[in-house]
Design brief:
CATH architecture of one domain in chain A: 2-Layer Sandwich
CATH architecture of the largest domain in chain B: 2-Layer Sandwich
Number of strands of chain A: 12
Shape of chain B: globular
Number of domains of chain B: 3
GO molecular function, one term (chain A): FAD binding
Largest sheet of chain B: 7 strands, mixed
CATH class of the largest domain in chain B: Alpha Beta
Pfam families (chain A): CO_deh_flav_C (PF03450), FAD_binding_5 (PF00941)
CATH topology of one domain in chain A: Enolase-like, domain 1
Helix content of chain B: 10-25%
CATH topology of the largest domain in chain B: Aldehyde Oxidoreductase, domain 4
Order of helices and strands of chain A: EHEHEEEHHHHHHHEEHEEEEEHHH
Oligomer: heterotrimer
Radius of gyration of chain B: 27 Å
Keywords (chain A): FAD, Flavoprotein
Largest interface: B-C, 72 and 68 residues
Largest sheet of chain A: 5 strands, antiparallel
Structural class of chain A: alpha+beta
Chains: A alpha+beta (about 350), B alpha+beta (about 750), C alpha+beta (about 170)
Number of helices of chain A: 13
Organism (chain A): Pedobacter agri
Strand order of the largest sheet of chain A: 4-5-8-6-7
Protein name (chain A): Xanthine dehydrogenase family protein subunit M
CATH superfamily of one domain in chain A: CO dehydrogenase flavoprotein, C-terminal domain
Helix content of chain A: 25-40%
Radius of gyration of chain A: 19 Å
Distance between the termini of chain A: 46 Å
Number of helices of chain B: 17
Distance between the termini of chain B: 61 Å
């Protein structure tokens, strides 16, 4: 655990200048993950640049294209309870409220939510090898206890999963991440923001050095009529997902016009299958269709022993959540399975 | 004395205001001048030796006072015996920073002492160790070939080995009309009180120490410190007025106490040491166990063979035993029995009592086996218990001092609505949920330890009592105040029960659900002596109407002593003390179990738990939607705090059945979920309706107040009741706890 | 991970002045930036009512109300909250008059050891203020960030429901 200097930035430009000029410095927003990792001696910043007072990061506003811009510094809870989010993007609201606890949601920023590190036991223990923490040191999870680990998109180097709930909904909603950096501003499609571990599990996402997330844009389409978020875990609240599903449907009567299904807790990033969503287009919205789509989504899934159950569980969760999306009122607090 | 009785009343916790306002101080919270902070360094390896320690970098950090390790520690006691505490199992006690040997992962290997907490914590990362690692064994199942009976020792008195075989078990089981053979597996659990283990040592000089410690036994820790550091026990004072939960983890002195005292003596300064949450997984725990059950019955459900063989983990240095195989025959008669409890020593720290040790593990196996027997016999599970009901203890062939288990069964079944149960698995449904009903029996000890109480009436007519016990959240302060108030006819406001201090008269550690009976009886004995002294003093007064009164001819009520037959004749306690020149009248007395009389009896509390679960038919998620536990535990002093003890234990039962497990990675030899994020205990969302019933159980034999203790009995039956309800819901019998919901799909 | 001792960081230049209004009183702290709000309250201001249970955001014992919202003081650096208003359990009652939640906790025996209690109380006050929990199920869900190892869960939720429905939770 190292000690650090502390600075506050009041504009994004200032923040980026500060981080460029100090090796090992990190942006500090809500702190809910960074301070935790620092205390565990996993992240060792030499300087923290507090971005909580950058006004431009804290906005939330409707866009001319009908979408909604979520400031990166806006808090998770404020986002979930924002009237426009509740009305137009209830899937996002439900997913945020399924994550962490009320206190943490009051602290955590939207940008920080995207940058959460995995909750893999071995990543969190600096005394043991971990390729994500120390590249090349090994992955004890593969041979160890891997109940919480990945069944999709893992590599021989890393089988960790990405823990966010919010990002599962953002993936389903085709959000866009706006970033600022020394080389200027750019936008990243949500599907391209996080990455699979491959041979660089130390990299969770495709941000370049010193880039700062400024905002997240939601497109106009919010799927407010038919949506559901389901989270399965070892207790009814305040636990990370073993499997979670965000489902958003656009229906024409009983027929699916468009389907979005994203899985959490199963891979190094929220998982979507274009093939499955294409399959569902034009199908009747029922258990049978969802089950066939689930087979497609999980077709490449592999278990590592303790997490083999996730394949079957994810398939069933996709079916149930599809049915819940047909009747969004069936959703329960804590994103539990419908009664 | 029948006026204004407080015993039996639902009195709110007397320390409640201190707790809800944040005024109550716990071990790490005492404001002490010039305090140094210690931070523990834990071994990252599981077994081997420390070859070298380089503390030079750490010492260069501004604010670091010293780094203590086995290389530079102060000269300590030499003999194992001096480290032995009241709860030490047979073996060699672990001695922190004793030598270079690493016996388990997370073992304390150094203490950094600095001017502030943050500096000590930072410096703890700047020490360079060189280790020589050795191979280790941490897996119970892989080492069953090493199983052996426990060594005998002092602790054996409270935890006797299983009784010897009776009849011809093998033959009887083989020929039983109905038989069930099953193997149950339990994982490691850690106590995880929310308060971190902590000690604040005030260095008073001249060999004197005042120690604020997180413990369940102030005197236990006082003697431990005095013995090891060669101090006079009167110079060591251990205080623990508030304890933020312990559940057994405070029954033995933990290493932060040792390290904190050592640093205080070494630096001649006030020192505080607080463990972090990961270090809370580096000492005691409930051991993992494998239990092999073989129960046989005749066609009518009468049990003919009871077999229970347990294999449990212990460390390589002490033989910790929890009673497992002893229980089934205390409940159910059987002519043929075979009981074993064997230990498997592994490279871990010594396990330790954790709420209902042995009982909660064993009764899960026993009562699930009974449920399966009922299922195969097509007899209602409650009916099977009643068929095998015994008024006496079949294992000792002695009568119980009292046993209202039948009332527990019937009252809880009635309240629960057991008669609505469909015995066929998967037959009850509610939307997407399979509904299951399950029940189980609980049994637990009714211990009483010797305790000494000083009681006095002061010049303002108040009663002050002194006893060294702690109140770990059980309601001890409130309950003792109630007992004392009734004994002297005072209001609760007129009684000060002072506790949590090793300077006060003797109490054992607060464990085994024993303190209400232990200190409570001592209060009754002391109060009797006090009444006698007050009467004698009153009789000495001029023209006293009490001159010829005998003890049973006076009553105490509303701060006065009255003649029983002439209640209008009285004297206030204040006046009696005034006649004693204002000097308090006091007495110190010992309360102790009536061993001779009680040798002819068996002593136990009983319970019956009934549980409803909903299991999602597709996804397997489990909800304990409601539960009823009826308890027979003698007299209930305070139904409010007692109910909380039981419903809190029921939450523990839910946790044990569905949530908590410490996961050992056997390749690494360490626990990998040593935090409260991944070591799951129930959150509010997991807990639904919990009903508690206290069966009427009058017990004039067990002790002067007729109490048996309620700290653990509420947990014992719950895990099996939940497992059995899950079986009723799903048709799946899961033999391993906790039950993961994915095993149900 | 081993790093070089960072002596230069223990200097006056790295010390931060932090102004907090704690329970209505202005407080000034001179601390190094790595001091958590929790340790700042406990070790520097001697307000030990706020509890340390895990120090990693996993138990809720350190919950305080910061600028009207319940947060975890263990995952907050004190320096981040310069200028903020903090209410801890010590500031919840009005003099000798307990806050309705405090009284309800006593009445419902909503605690045993009392260690998680300050966090539960601050969290409950935050919950009622947020106004998002309508049913008992929602209260349970939104209180699930506060663990109680004694298992006083039923009493805690009963106490909150009573105050919430009684409308005196502010």
């Amino acid at each position: 655990m190292n000690n650090f200097e502390y600075q506050q930035a009041t504009t994004s430009v200032e923040a980026i200048n500060l981080i460029e000029n100090h090796d090992g410095s990190r942006f500090l927003a809500g702190g809910t993950n960074l301070i935790d990792l620092w205390k565990y001696n996993i992240t060792n910043p030499t300087e923290l640049i507090d971005i909580n007072r950058i006004a431009e990061l804290s906005e939330i506003r409707e866009l001319e294209n009908g979408g909604l811009r979520l400031g990166a510094g806006f808090k998770n809870a404020d986002t979930a309870y924002h009237p426009v989010v509740e009305q137009k993007y209830p899937l996002l609201s439900k997913a945020i409220l399924a994550g962490a606890s009320a206190q943490i949601r009051n602290m955590a920023s939207n940008g920080g939510n995207l940058l959460q590190r995995t909750r893999c036991y071995y990543f969190y223990d600096p005394e043991v090898p971990c390729n994500k923490r120390v590249p090349g040191s090994g992955c004890p999870a593969k041979e160890g206890y891997n109940r919480i680990h990945a069944i999709l998109g893992a590599s021989e180097h890393c089988i960790a999963v990405f823990p966010s709930d919010m990002c599962v909904a953002l993936t389903a909603l085709d959000a866009v991440v706006n970033v600022a950096g020394p080389e200027g501003n750019r936008s990243i499609n949500f599907a391209d923001f996080h990455r699979l571990p491959d041979d660089r599990p130390d990299l969770d996402n495709n941000l370049k050095p010193h880039e700062l997330i400024v905002s997240i844009d939601l497109p106009e389409k919010g799927f407010a009529a038919n949506y559901s978020y389901l989270k399965l875990r070892d207790r009814h609240s305040y636990a990370f997902a073993l499997v979670s599903v965000a489902t958003a449907l656009e229906l024409d009567g009983d027929t699916i016009k468009e389907a979005r299904i994203a899985l959490g807790g199963v891979a190094h990033k929220p998982w979507r299958s274009a093939e499955a969503e294409d399959f569902l287009r034009g199908k009747i919205a029922n258990a049978e269709s969802f089950a066939l789509a689930a087979d497609i989504i999980l077709s490449g899934a592999t278990g590592y022993g303790h997490n083999d159950f996730k394949i079957k569980l994810a398939k069933r969760a996709i079916v149930r959540n599809g049915l819940m999306a047909l009747n969004p009122e069936s959703q329960l607090p804590g994103a539990q399975p419908s009664a | 004395m029948d006026l204004n009785k407080t015993v039996g009343q639902p009195i709110s916790r007397l320390e409640g205001k201190l707790k809800v306002t944040g005024v109550a101080k716990y071990a790490a919270e005492y404001e002490v001048d010039d305090l140094l902070h210690g931070y523990v360094v834990s071994s990252p390896i599981t077994k081997g030796k420390i070859l070298n320690i380089d503390i030079s970098k750490a010492l260069r950090i501004p604010g670091v006072k010293d780094v203590l390790s086995h290389e530079n520690r102060t000269k300590l006691a030499w003999f194992d015996l001096q480290y032995t505490d009241m709860d030490a199992p047979p073996g060699t006690v672990f001695k922190p920073l004793y030598d270079e040997n690493i016996l388990y992962n997370g073992q304390p290997i150094a203490l950094v002492v600095a001017e502030d907490f943050e500096t000590a914590r930072y410096a703890s990362t700047q020490i360079i160790f060189e280790f020589q690692q050795e191979t280790f064994e941490t897996n119970l199942r892989n080492n069953l070939d090493k199983a052996r009976p426990a060594k005998k020792g002092f602790a054996t008195a409270l935890k006797p080995p299983p009784p010897p075989p009776t009849g011809d078990f093998e033959n009887a089981f083989e020929n039983a009309a109905c038989k069930v053979e099953a193997e149950f597996q339990h994982g490691t659990e850690h106590h995880n009180p929310i308060e971190l283990f902590a000690t604040t040592t005030v260095y008073e000089g001249k060999g004197k120490l005042t120690i604020y410690d997180k413990t369940q036994g102030t005197i236990n820790n006082q003697l431990y410190v005095a013995n090891i550091f060669g101090l006079h026990y009167k110079d060591v004072r251990v205080l623990a007025p508030f304890v933020g939960g312990a559940f057994g983890s405070g029954l033995r002195p933990q290493y932060q106490l040792f390290l904190c005292v050592m640093a205080a003596l070494h630096l001649k300064r006030n020192v505080r040491v607080v463990l972090d949450r990961k270090q809370m997984f580096s000492f005691s725990h409930r051991p993992p166990a494998i239990q092999k059950m073989r129960f046989g019955s005749d066609i009518n459900g009468k049990i003919t063979a009871l077999g229970h063989s347990a294999f449990a983990e212990t460390s390589n240095f002490e033989d910790y035993t929890e009673p497992t195989a002893n229980w089934s025959h205390k409940l159910y008669p059987s002519p043929n029995t075979l009981f074993e409890h064997n230990l498997v020593p592994l490279d871990v720290y010594t396990p330790m009592d954790m709420r209902a040790p042995g009982g909660s593990t064993a009764l899960h196996a026993i009562e699930c086996t009974m449920d399966e027997l009922a299922h195969q016999l097509k007899i209602d599970p409650l009916e099977l218990r009643l068929i095998n009901y015994s008024e006496m203890d079949p294992s000792s062939k002695k009568p119980y001092t009292s046993k209202a288990l039948r009332a527990c069964y019937l009252e809880a079944a009635e309240k629960f609505g057991w008669s609505n149960r469909n015995p066929e698995p998967r037959a009850m449904k509610r939307g997407n949920k399979l509904v299951g009903f399950g029940m189980a029996t609980g049994i637990w000890d009714a211990f009483q330890f010797p305790a000494r109480v000083e009681a006095m009436i002061t010049k303002d007519g108040r009663m002050v009592l002194n006893n060294a016990t702690t109140d770990i959240g059980t309601g001890t302060l409130t309950v003792m105040t109630q007992i004392a108030a009734d004994e002297l006819g005072l209001s609760l406001e007129e009684v000060d029960f002072q506790y949590g201090d090793s300077k006060k008269p003797f109490s054992m550690f607060q464990g085994g659900s024993a303190i209400t009976s232990s200190t409570g009886v001592a209060i009754v004995v002391a109060a009797k002596a006090l009444r006698k002294k007050l009467l004698r003093k009153a009789a000495e007064m001029d023209a006293s109407p009490f001159k010829k009164a005998k003890e049973d001819e006076v009553i105490f009520s509303a701060g006065k002593m009255h003649l029983k037959d002439q209640p209008e004749v009285f004297i206030s306690l204040k006046e009696i003390i005034a006649s004693n020149k204002g000097k308090a009248i006091k007495t110190t007395n010992l309360g102790k179990p009536h061993m001779l009389k009680l040798r002819k009896y068996s002593l136990a509390t009983h319970s019956a738990s009934f549980v409803e679960v909903e299991v999602d038919q597709d996804l397997g998620t489990v909800t304990v939607t409601r539960a009823v536990t009826a308890v027979a535990a003698g007299k209930i002093i305070n139904p409010k705090t007692a109910k909380s003890q039981i419903s809190g234990s029921m939450v523990w039962g839910i946790s044990k059945a569905l949530h908590e497990e410490t996961i050992m990675d056997d390749h690494l030899g360490k626990y990998i979920n040593a935090n409260l994020g991944e070591y799951h205990i129930p959150v509010h969302a997991d807990i639904n309706q919990l009903d508690v019933i206290f069966a009427d159980e009058k017990d004039d034999l067990i002790n002067e107040i007729g109490t048996k203790g309620v700290g653990e009995i509420g947990l014992v039956g719950m895990p099996a009741a939940i497992s059995n309800a899950i079986f009723n819901a799903t048709g799946k019998r899961i033999y391993k706890l906790p039950i993961h919901f994915d095993e149900l799909i | 991970m081993q790093t070089e001792p960072q002596d230069h960081l223990f200097t006056k230049q790295n010390t931060c002045a932090v102004n907090l209004k704690v329970n209505g009183e202005d407080k000034k702290l001179f601390i190094l930036p790595w001091v958590s709000l929790l340790d700042g309250l406990r070790d520097h201001l001697h307000l030990t009512g706020t509890k340390k249970g895990c120090d990693h955001g996993q138990c809720g014992a350190c919950t305080v109300i910061c600028d009207g919202k319940r947060i975890l003081s263990c995952l907050t650096l004190a320096v981040m909250k310069n200028g903020s208003e903090i209410t801890t359990v010590e500031g919840v009652a009005q003099g000798d008059n307990l806050h309705p939640i405090q009284q309800a906790f006593i009445d419902h025996d909503a605690f045993q050891c009392g260690y998680c209690t300050p966090g539960q109380i601050c969290s409950a006050i935050g919950l009622i203020k947020e106004g998002k929990a309508n049913s008992r199920e929602e209260v349970k869900e939104l209180m699930s960030g506060n663990l109680c190892r004694c298992g006083a869960n039923v009493g805690i939720i009963d106490a909150i429901m009573q105050v919430k429905d009684g409308g005196s939770g502010e």
